[in-house]
Every structure is written in structure tokens, then in C-alpha cells.
Specification:
Blueprint (H helix, E strand, L loop, with lengths): L5 E5 L9 E7 L5 E7 L2 H18 L5 E7 L4 H15 L26 E6 L16 E5 L9 H14 L6 E5 L6 H8 L6 E4 L5 H17 L7 E6 L2 H5 L1 H5 L7 E4 L1 H8 L11 H14 L2 E3 L9 H14 L4 E3 L3 H10 L3 H19 L6 E2 L2 E2 L2 H16 L10
Parallel strand pairs: 3-4, 5-6, 5-12, 6-7, 7-8, 8-9, 9-10, 10-11
Antiparallel strand pairs: 1-2, 2-4, 13-14
Helix pairs in contact: 1-2, 2-3, 4-5, 10-11, 12-13
Length: 403
């Protein structure tokens, strides 16, 4: 048994909701003394007590004093908080796992669109519950910067449970692990639990990606997982920018590189501006590395959540540089990002003409494809088809546009 006598786990306070705070003491005798304090006690008190006893039974806890202060937490939160409290006091490798939500039994593709990815703090369950209804392309449960050092262990179990029990409404399920090498420890809490993509912060070498990939593969073998788990390294330093292509090609499971401009500008010793002139070289260098490696370049978050016009302008610049998506820190940013990364009507019309011309040439057995006076080569056709696929994905074009 741990030397600590009492464990304090969770969040509480006037503004805390959808969470609980656990005060647990393991005793030598006296049975289970449970003080449940909940605003929904009348409706759900029996369910909460049953879960508490189920977790105690699972970890073979017969004698304990428990104060359970609930502010509307769902079962996946309650279980994570109580499990961490027990593990703070008792050495055990057992995991109390809730069933996988059937709606989350989907995998994602290497080349799917990743216009938006919404960051959610990994130890704040209230923000996780309905994030999917805002329709971001990806939802990031963040174990790194959004979680204080003292809460890292709690967040690991909460994120693990959230991967299993929260409905993401089809969004790509992402987790940002901690900086290498600490992030290796995070992997055992997410790899076996239906994660689609892992973000690797402050990445500075291919060796880091390869070590992470090695750990992921070991866990996949241990847990009989066959589906791909994609990687998105985040470049946040001058050294990382210099090694961008090396990182982009470190593994076939790297689907994108993202740039983190707050840390990058801090590494340069300059201030980040809305215009972004101080990071232009780095952003273009990252885009070029990604295009050379045939993966997606993803721009940094825009930190002013109140200025939608500035965000729209930022997205347009990002798109003009070759970026294919960016992060967001508030749901209201999602639509602005999608609308401004979407292809323009003239881009769509041009792409349609290119694809039609190419298909007609192929049907006639022609070895040369032209549109007007211009020859069309394979990369041009590929870009045109990507534009059309994007327009279909966004509902701008019907799937049978050429029928």
C-alpha cells in the first residue's frame, strides 16, 4: 500500500460541472463508508453508488472511507476519478474499463480531410461531452500543455475512458501526448482504446517518431490491434523546422506535420503577430517538407477566439501558402476554418474541366491530355481530383456531379 493515507482526485468549485471530486482513505477495517454528495442524487444516486461498489469490488477494496462530491459527472468520469484515487493508494496494474461505445467503431484514412482539429483539455470532462456536435474534422484530447503537471496521471485515465465512452459523431479521435520521452508513458493509456491519431508535440527528430512508433507497435501486438494509428508531429522549434522533412518521412504512419507558433516564436525570441511575418519562413519550409513527403501540412491555432474576421483572413493566407488545415481552440472557429479552406467556385469549375478532359482522353486511348492549349499532366489531374473530392465532402458538389 502507498505511504499516502488519503487521495484527493478530480475537480471541484463553483464553476466546475460534469465532474466529481473524490476523497478516499483505505482502512484496515470498518467496511465501506460512502458519503455521496450530488445534486442529482434523487435521480441517479443509486446508479452512482452501484458504480462505486463495482469499482471497489473490481479492485478488491473492502474497507474504505469515501467522500464522493458529484457535479453531474457521467459514469466514465466517475470511474476514472475513483480508479485513480485507488491507484494512488494501492499498487495495482488492473484497469477498470467501460465498454466501447458502438458509435465509435470506425477507423480513419491517411489522406482524409483535416481542415479543423479542436483542442480539448484532457482533464476537463465538461468540454468533452458534446464537442462532436460542432462537426470538427478531429477532436484532440490534450494530455500536454492543457493539463497541469500535478494532474497528468488523472488525465491519462480520464482520456482513456473518454476514448471508450464519448460519442465523437464521426470526428477523428486524436490525443496529444506529452513531450518525448514522457509521452511514451501516455501511449499505454490510449493505443489500446480506439485512438485514431496521436499528436507528438515539440518533435525535433525522426528518432523520436521511430521510438514512439516502436512503442505503439508493441502495444498493438499486445492488445491484438490491427488498424493503423496515424501520427501528426508538431514542429515547435527552430531545430524542428530544420529537420521537418526528416520527421515527415520518419514513418509511413505520419499523415501530417503541424506547426505550433507560440512555442516556435518563443524559441526564436520574437513575438507572435497576427500578420505572421516572423514565422513565414518556417511555415513555408514546413509546407514544402510536407508536399515533398506527400503528407498534409497543418497550420497553428489562431488564439484570438473573438475576432472571426481576423481568423478568416488568417485561414486565407494559410491556404495560399499550401496549408490544408489548422487547429482551433473554440467551437466557433470551426465553421470559419471550413468555409475559408473550402475551394472557390472558379477552382471547382477548373477542376471539373480538367477531370472531364482527362477521363475523355483515357476513354479514347489517347496518350496525351490537353485542355485548350495547355497540356495536362498527372500532378495537375491529381490536384483537380482532390479539389472535387473536397467539394463533394463539403456538400458543394453532389457525388454524381459528372453523371
Amino acid at each position: 500500500m502507498n505511504e499516502n493515507k488519503i487521495a484527493y482526485v478530480g475537480n471541484k468549485g463553483e464553476k466546475v460541472r460534469s465532474d466529481c471530486f473524490v476523497t478516499l482513505e483505505l482502512t484496515e477495517a470498518g467496511g465501506r463508508k460512502i458519503d455521496l454528495q450530488s445534486k442529482v442524487n434523487t435521480l441517479y444516486g443509486e446508479e452512482i453508488l452501484k458504480l462505486i461498489h463495482d469499482v471497489f469490488d473490481f479492485f478488491e477494496i473492502q474497507n474504505a472511507n469515501l467522500l464522493f462530491e458529484d457535479t453531474g459527472a457521467l459514469a466514465f468520469v466517475q470511474a476514472a476519478r475513483l480508479e485513480y484515487a485507488i491507484k494512488s493508494l494501492k499498487d495495482t496494474e488492473k484497469e477498470y474499463l467501460l465498454p466501447f461505445l458502438p458509435e465509435n467503431q470506425y477507423i480513419t484514412k491517411k489522406e482524409q480531410f483535416r481542415f479543423s482539429r479542436l483542442y480539448l483539455p484532457g482533464n476537463t470532462p465538461s468540454l468533452m461531452l458534446n464537442a462532436g456536435i460542432h462537426k470538427p474534422n478531429g477532436i484532440i484530447l490534450d494530455l500536454e500543455d492543457a493539463v497541469s503537471f500535478s494532474k497528468k496521471g488523472e488525465a491519462q485515465l480520464l482520456v482513456r475512458n473518454a476514448l471508450r465512452a464519448v460519442n465523437y459523431y464521426g470526428a477523428e479521435r486524436m490525443v496529444r501526448i506529452n513531450q518525448f520521452p514522457r509521452g511514451l508513458e501516455d501511449l499505454k493509456y490510449i493505443v489500446p482504446h480506439n485512438v485514431n491519431l496521436i499528436l507528438v508535440p515539440k518533435c525535433e527528430s525522426a528518432e523520436q517518431i521511430q521510438k514512439i512508433e516502436e512503442t505503439i507497435n508493441d502495444l498493438k501486438i499486445k492488445h491484438s490491434i490491427s488498424s493503423n494509428i496515424w501520427l501528426m508531429p508538431i514542429i515547435e522549434s527552430a531545430l524542428g523546422i530544420e529537420k521537418a522533412f526528416e520527421i515527415a518521412t520518419a514513418s509511413p504512419n505520419v499523415v501530417a506535420l503541424a506547426i505550433g507558433l507560440e512555442d516556435f516564436t518563443a524559441d526564436l525570441g520574437v513575438s507572435r503577430t497576427k500578420e505572421g511575418s516572423e514565422s513565414l519562413f518556417a511555415r513555408m519550409r514546413l509546407v514544402n517538407a510536407c508536399k515533398a513527403a506527400q503528407i498534409q501540412p497543418i497550420d497553428s491555432v489562431f488564439s484570438d477566439i473573438s475576432d472571426m474576421q481576423a481568423l478568416a483572413e488568417n485561414v486565407k493566407v494559410s491556404k495560399s501558402l499550401g496549408f490544408e488545415g489548422m487547429g482551433c481552440i473554440h467551437p466557433r472557429q470551426i465553421k470559419v476554418i471550413h468555409d475559408n479552406f473550402a475551394p472557390l467556385s472558379d477552382e471547382i469549375e477548373k477542376a471539373k474541366k480538367i477531370v472531364v478532359a482527362f477521363n475523355e482522353a483515357v476513354a479514347k486511348g489517347l496518350g496525351v491530355v490537353s485542355l485548350g492549349t495547355k497540356m495536362i499532366d498527372a500532378p495537375v489531374v491529381k490536384r483537380a481530383q482532390t479539389t472535387i473530392n473536397l467539394a463533394i465532402n463539403l456538400g458543394i458538389l453532389p457525388e454524381d456531379w459528372n453523371s
